[in-house]
From TrEMBL:
Compartments where found: Cell membrane
Organism field: Dyadobacter linearis
Name of the coding gene: rcsC_32
This protein's name: Sensor histidine kinase RcsC
CDD domains in UniProt: REC_hyHK_CKI1_RcsC-like
Pfam families for the chain: Hpt, Response_reg
Domain Response regulatory as annotated: residue spans: 1-100, 123-241
PANTHER family: HYBRID SIGNAL TRANSDUCTION HISTIDINE KINASE J
Bilayer topology term: Multi-pass membrane protein
Main location class: membrane
Length: 372
């Protein structure tokens, strides 16, 4: 996971080895397992704190149970974060990002020398209700702009609340979200003092006729389609955060990745778009599958309640997750539910069964692909 984030690291198999390594090199943070042979993680941290210059180095404690360690003890040892095992990619990314800002340091996340990096501190708000798409956006932003502060909103109302407490420098706004959609949220945000100059970038899972024009009329500055592509975000930041560095054509059509009529899941496109990072893909696909299973549960609940609007919203959310993972059949089935105009019990029930069958077929394909 650290390699995927281009974070340089050294490993120790015990507390004693960790103490020895700290004598020879400088570090921005320590990930410390609680259960280790010999002295445990807390004893190791206690000894680290006794060393000159290590009183305030950030420590993240890794533990199998939240009940293992008391809050008072971690506060005494100045341990700001705990992570439960097994460690998830998005959790460690969020944790290290918070540590970076807490310590007012931009040196925790080090992009690769080959990557193009935007230096400087600025605030980015991502309004997106799909966890897989949020994960993608945060990962790419952290690579491209390691000093950027990333704020998250799961719907338009949450985005408004964040903007009330302080305007970000740029907003990535999903157009279809629960409680308040992106169009409505943009209209409200534009009324805030100083908000007219904030770039708002529309995010959409499709390229429907007239959608670009509707986004612009709502007060948005730009329009990009999902799934996210790293170069797309780079060009957006160049254009709106660093105007003098804008280059090339960053129009939505140039950045959109079209889906072809494959069955199951298109690993070729996944590798092409997401740079063949196996660790990233494993975590991303796990999050995506979890999101899609949750979507089916939501659909079943809305089906029992005969809630057509809920079915439309759940279908939209599933469509976005499946499209980002290049699952064309799941995408098409979810889109059918998203645009269903009337409650048709037999059709909905049949589509639900096809969605479940599709996920059951994709899961072993993912396992086989990464085991082969």
């Amino acid at each position: 996971m650290l390699d995927l984030l281009s974070i340089r690291s050294q490993q120790a198999e015990s507390g004693e080895q960790a103490l020895s390594i700290l004598e020879t090199a400088a570090f921005d943070a320590i990930l410390m397992d609680y259960h280790m042979p010999g002295q445990d993680g807390l004893e190791t941290v206690r000894r680290i704190r006794q060393k000159h210059g290590f009183e305030k180095i950030p420590v993240v404690l890794l533990t199998s149970s939240s009940a293992d360690i008391s809050a008072a003890l971690t506060e005494t040892l100045n341990i700001p974060f705990k992570l439960l095992k097994p460690i998830k990619f998005n959790e460690i990314l969020a944790c290290l990002s918070r540590l970076a800002f807490q310590e007012e340091s931009t040196n925790i996340i080090h992009p690769t020398e080959k990557g193009q990096v935007i230096n400087g501190t600025f605030k980015v708000l991502i309004a997106e209700d799909n966890s897989a798409n949020m994960f993608l956006a945060k990962t790419f932003l952290s690579r491209i702009a390691p000093a950027a502060q990333i704020l998250e909103a799961v719907n338009g109302k949450a985005a408004l609340e964040i903007c009330l407490s302080g305007l970000p420098d740029i907003i990535f706004m999903d157009v279809q979200m629960p409680l308040m959609n992106g169009y409505e949220a943009t209209g409200h945000i534009r009324k805030f003092p100083g908000a007219l100059k904030i770039p708002i970038i529309a995010l959409t899972a499709g390229n429907m006729k007239g959608e670009k024009e509707r986004c612009l009329l709502a007060g948005m500055d730009h329009f990009i389609t999902k799934p996210f592509v790293e170069n797309t975000i780079l060009e957006i930041l160049r254009k709106y955060i660093l105007p003098g560095l804008a280059s090339g054509d960053s129009s939505p059509a140039a950045n959109n990745v079209a889906l072809e009529a494959h069955t199951g899941i298109d690993f070729q496109k996944l590798n092409a778009v997401y740079l063949a990072d196996a660790s990233f893909l494993i975590e991303f696909l796990a999050i995506t599958m979890q999101s899609l299973e949750g979507g089916i549960s939501d659909l079943k609940r809305y089906y029992q309640a005969k809630d057509l609007q809920g079915i439309n919203l759940a279908g939209h959310k599933m469509k976005g997750a499946a499209a980002s993972a290049f699952m064309p059949e799941i995408t098409a089935l979810a889109q059918t539910l998203e645009h269903m105009a009337s409650f048709e019990p037999q059709e909905i029930d049949h589509t639900l069964q096809l969605l479940q069958d599709g996920l059951n077929q994709i899961r072993p394909l993912i396992n086989d692909y990464f085991l082969s």
